[in-house]
Specification:
2 domains, about 10% strand, ABC transporter transmembrane region fold
């Protein structure tokens, strides 16, 4: 954690130094007050000298005033620096996650990343603030209190040889036990966050399958596991603090007893005994503060390591030192897979083996096959969400790894398997495709995507509110909005990952017809489950268990490829290769799917 703090506090070293000065000044002023209090008792009260009482009292007021000023200034600086620290940690954390490939996202998991950017950052922020307020004072209070106590009465100060080691032993025992527990606790919080996230996002599925009781038990399991760790942490802390205060109170009692004997013998004045007790309390408070920090620091150290692990992760997919830049920054769109094999990280078997094909501009290359045959994996490799484990993916004749990933993706218009919309307005979501898109351009893209009708039926139009995840739109509506967003970008390569699955046959057919003139000069990579969606593709690639079973047009494959024939016939096609284009209900399905939601959740 020290390296992490050192990196982020470097621009604020001046403020940290000023904060340190204020904290040390506050500690010194605090140490001087008991000495004046002893003078009031010994020189004023004991001798009846009112002028000494007034003059010393005024001095105490002045010192207290400056002590308050120093405390306020230190607290303000500590709050400001710690808040800035948290801001920059979250900023760089999010920036690092933005560069991650799917492999890194899979490795950390969404639940863990959320915990790290919220709970872990908060732990580091709070610990830094408390450290600057207490840890800087603790050495001054401990050493200064010891020196000042010795000045009051050296023989009585020998009692510290017993008191201080006892407190250090207790603090060390607590620190040694809490460190591993906090590491376990953060992992349990990751699990808890993951389960909550899954249950909130999947609440419809849970209710549809009446699995509330099962999910309640699953949540209860991780909740109890977290609770057990928290209980162990709480027991340690709740036992340690009373023990520490017991030691402090027993030490004060012993000092008062032995000090009273020395006052009785005339070896010590009452004011000096009072000051000695005050210095004892100052020293013990310093130790207590250090002990409290010994509880917070282990957890913050664990959190710091978890944050640093994300920020310092080097993405597997990054731009080369001298990336290839196409003329004008635009590719033509020719994509070639050359003997490509691919296995997901940690998988024992490859999902793709020896895949070779070429997708050219102006053509639609479609992929079809059974579930798990590797269709979506091909699109992920074509967009370099993952890197191949064998062979090459070429874009315009250059290895895809020679490009800057960000510059390359500006030439792509992607419609994912699960349409993703962001909270905001429809206009904001459309401008993900093109930042400066006009309303006219947006409506044109919506018209092509067969989405203009239901958007017009919403009273707010493009200003309509989009709920988190687009939950106030139906599946078909979200798919068409995602397509419109990609069309608005006017990319050189379109990737449709089973993006027509939520559309009825009639809407599917109209949408494909509207896309033809738009994609005439672009490369289209299309994954589909329905053979009707890819019938007109210039090149259809049939996948079977991660390998290419056949390549050709619909007519060629129907004549030569058994796997394709089985797929078509399983969907209702006849022996002549005809694919049903819909049923009488198709138009009614389209109308139902296009109904306006008006900001309310579609049912």
């Amino acid at each position: 954690m020290l390296r992490l703090l050192g990196r982020y506090l470097r621009p604020y070293w001046g403020q940290v130094v000023i904060l340190t000065v204020f904290q040390i000044l506050q500690a010194f002023l605090n140490l001087y007050l008991p000495n004046l209090q002893a003078a009031v008792i010994d020189e004023g009260v004991a001798k009846g000298n009112m002028s000494a009482i007034y003059s010393t009292g005024i001095g105490m007021l002045v010192i207290s005033f400056f002590q308050v000023i120093a405390a306020v200034a230190a607290l303000w600086l500590a709050s400001r620096i710690s808040a800035r620290l948290a801001y920059e940690l979250r900023r760089d954390f999010f920036g690092a996650v933005e560069t991650f490939s799917l492999a890194e996202l899979d490795r950390f998991s969404a639940g863990s990343l959320i915990t790290r950017t919220t709970n872990d950052v908060q732990q580091v922020q709070q610990t830094f603030m408390q450290s600057t307020l207490f840890v800087l004072q603790a050495p001054v209070m401990l050493i200064g209190g010891l020196v000042m106590a010795i000045r009051q009465d050296a023989p009585l100060s020998l009692s510290f040889l017993v008191i201080i080691p006892i407190i250090l032993v207790v603090a060390g025992a607590v620190l040694g036990s809490l460190g591993p527990l906090f590491g376990t606790l953060q992992k349990k919080l990751d699990d808890l966050n993951r389960v909550i996230r899954e249950q909130v996002t999947g609440v419809r599925v849970i209710r549809a399958f009446t699995r509330e009781e099962t999910e309640t038990k699953r949540f209860g399991t991780v909740n109890k596991a977290t609770d057990r760790v928290l209980m162990r942490v709480g027991v340690l802390i709740s036992c340690a603090i009373p023990v520490m205060w017991f030691i402090v109170n027993m030490a004060s009692l012993a000092i008062m007893w032995f000090g009273g004997r020395r006052v009785e013998q005339g070896a010590m004045q009452i004011g000096s005994l009072q000051a000695f007790i005050q210095y004892l309390m100052i020293m013990l408070m310093g130790l207590m503060q250090a002990a409290m920090m010994s509880v917070m620091i282990p957890r913050a150290a664990v959190s710091g390591r978890r944050i640093k692990a994300v920020i310092d992760t080097k993405p597997d997919i990054a731009a080369p030192q001298t990336p290839y830049t196409p003329q004008g920054g635009h590719i033509s769109g020719k994509i070639e897979f050359r003997d490509v094999s691919f296995a997901y990280p940690g998988a024992q078997e490859p999902v793709l083996s020896h895949i070779s094909f070429t997708a050219r501009p102006g053509q639609t290359t479609a992929f079809i096959g059974s579930t798990g045959s590797g269709k979506s994996s091909i699109l992920r490799l074509a967009t370099r969400m993952y890197d191949v484990t064998g062979g090459q993916v070429l874009v315009d004749g250059h290895d895809i790894r020679d490009y800057d990933p960000q510059a390359l993706l500006r030439n792509y218009g992607m419609v994912p398997q699960t349409a993703v919309l962001f909270s905001g307005t429809l206009r904001d979501n459309m401008r993900y495709g093109k930042d400066d898109a006009t309303d006219e351009e947006i409506w044109k893209a919506l018209t092509i995507a067969q989405a203009a009708d239901f958007v017009r039926d919403i009273p707010e139009g493009l200003d309509a509110h989009v709920a988190e995840g687009g939950t106030n739109f139906s599946g078909g509506q979200k798919q068409r909005l995602a397509m419109a967003r990609a069309i608005l970008r006017d990319p050189r390569v379109y990737t449709f990952d089973d993006s027509f699955s939520a559309l009825d046959m009639a809407t599917d057919r109209r949408l494909r017809e509207a896309l033809r003139p738009v994609t005439r000069r672009s490369t289209v990579l299309l994954v589909a489950q329905r053979a009707s969606s890819i019938r007109d593709a210039e090149q259809i690639i049939v996948l079977d268990d991660g390998r290419i079973s056949g390549i050709g047009t619909h007519e060629q494959l129907m004549a030569t490829n058994t796997v394709y024939q089985q797929i078509v016939r399983s969907q209702g096609g006849d022996h002549a290769g005809e694919i049903p284009q819909g049923r009488d209900q198709a138009g009614q399905d389209a109308a139902a799917d296009s109904r306006p939601t008006s900001g309310k959740e579609a049912r």
